Amino acid sequence: MEIGIDSFASAMYGSNQLTPVVAMEQLLERIELADQAGLDVFGIGEHHKKEFLDSATAVILAAAASRTKNIRLGSAVTVLSAADPVRVFQSFATLDLISKGRAELVVGRGSSVEAYPLFGFSLDDYDALFKEKLDLLLKIRDQEFVTWQGKFRAPLHNQPVYPRPLQQKLPVWLGVGGTPESFVRAGALGLPLMVAIIGGNTARFRPLIDLYREAGARSGFKPEELKVGLHSPGYVADTDAITINEYYPGYAELWTKLSRERGWPSVTRPQFDYLAGPEGVLVLGGPERVAEKLLRHSEALGGIDRFTFQMDNAGLTHQQLMYAIELIGTKVIPLVKAG
Length: 339
Prior knowledge:
Blueprint: E1 2-7, E2 12-13, E3 16-17, H1 20-36, E4 41-44, H2 57-65, E5 72-75, E6 78-79, H3 85-98, E7 103-108, H4 115-118, H5 126-142, E8 145-148, E9 156-160, E10 172-176, H6 180-189, E11 193-196, H7 206-218, E12 228-236, H8 240-262, H9 269-275, E13 283-285, H10 287-300, E14 306-310, H11 318-338
Helix pairs in contact: 1-11, 2-3, 3-5, 6-7, 10-11
């Protein structure tokens, strides 16, 4: 199992707002440390809001590439529906050259939808946009000269797209939430699957992952080609009690804000305790408890190939996040590998 971190380049730690310059420098320090600590991957999301600095994902990753040597660098998630697939490919192919073959993409429709009006697209075309643009992105990845026609973009007539990446086939993961059609789509295309699970019981996604694997098998892909990744909130400290005490206040503040924005119910402490428990989605605790939970999640989902922690959205300080990265590299990863 590969283990890494996803970040939304938060400029907020609880009630303390950082300057964008300081927040960005701290983020790059965390990516550099993750590389040194032996983590496998670091992903940067995409939002277009004041509290996040991740609107230009590839730019951040390119800066990180110059400070790292081994860690894979990817998006988490690129909102492909509101982007031009040609520019997306060019940006990440360039990143692949800068990083010497460490770039990858996770593409999706986006759970935060502010990109659609910002770039002149309608939410009425939410799925149609993604389907068409994914088709074009994969054609560009697989063919240097592209002939293509669609509804939402000008056609291409034997048009070359440059630069080409260092990797023979730039990895493109499909980021999904809970829509069965998305799981089937990923399987039918043979794309690796990144499942974002932010609430409830992780095991409830097993039927959807089974749909993915069944669709992939019907399309002729081998089981080893159908990779499954899991993205969930999590945090690691020295002990279970310290982890919970440090994580809960910021988590509760975040979900109170989200509940107001999206009409979700506010989180209660009993609900949080369930989510932090053996079957819940939150991967929290000391290194031993976190490793046990990752292995339990993998078994419940029929095996997962990658797990990424979402840590920097719960009011944790830069120092706390840096220490968590050290613990993941020095203790969690060895425990998971030992099985």
